[in-house]
Design a protein that fits this description.
With about 270 residues, the chain is α/β, with parallel strands linked by helices. It is built from twelve helices and twelve strands. Helix 12 links the parallel strand 11 and strand 12. Helix 1 crosses helix 11. The two termini are about 20 Å apart.
Length: about 270
Amino acid sequence: MAVGIFDSGLGGLTVLDAVSNRMPSQSFIYYGDNANTPYGVRDTDDIYKLTTTGLEKLWDEGCDLVILACNTASAAALRSIQEKFLPNGKRCLGVFVPLIEALTERNWGDNSPPREVSVKNVALFATPAPVSSRAFQRELAFRAIGVDVEAQACGGVVDAIEDGDLILAEALVRSHVDALKRKMPFPEAAILGCTHYPLLEKSFKESLGPDVKVFSQASLVAASLQDYLERHPNMKGAATASKFITTGDPKKVSDRATQFLQRKIDFERF
C-alpha cells in the first residue's frame, strides 16, 4: 500500500521529492490533474468535484492516506471532504497545517487558547482561490493572536511553471513581491502557499530581502507526514512500486516532470 499525493498539476512533485528523500522506503502514488490545472482560478464547487474524483482514483489504487499537496484544494475542499466524504479507514490531510505549526511553534494537537507569537507581520503568497477563501487566516486565528496577514494572489506564476517558462515565472515573482510590499512594506515572514513555489524559493528570498524568514511547504510537509506515519503505522502499508498518474498527456507531463525534478519521471494516463 502506498501513500497518495494529489495535486492539480506538477507542484505537488516538490512535496513528493521531499517525502521520498525523507522516507525512501515508503511507496507513493502521485495523481496530477494536469488536464484541469490550474485550480486557483476555479470556483469552489468545481474544485471539490475535481478533488474528490482524484481521491476516489487514489483509493482505488489502494491509498488509505492521501496528502492534498495542492493549496487550492486544501483551502477550498479539504474541510468538506473530511466532514462528509471520507469513507471509513481513509484519511486525507492538507498542507496548511505544517505551515501553521511552524509559524506558531505549536503542535496541531495543542488545543489551548490562541496566544501571541513572535512573528507579527506575515506575507502570504498563493494562487487566487486560497487567497479569496481566507482559509490560512482562519486556521491561523485558532492558534495565534495579533498576527497581521497580507495576502498576494500570484496570478500567472503556476501557469508559467507548468509551461516550463521559469524566466517568466521569476519575473512574475518579483512583480508580486513588489505589489505585496506596497501593502506591507516590512513583512517579518513570508508563506509560500503553493507547492509550485519551492522551485522559485530563491527568487522569493532575493525579492523579499535577507530579513524576511521564508516558510516553504515541501520540507515542512515531509517532516509532518513522517511524524504522522510514526503515530499511525497502519497507514504505511506494505512497500509497493511508486506510480505516477495524470489526467493530461502522459508524454508531455512526463517530460515536464522530468525537467521539474531533474530525474526521470514516467506518468501513466488516468
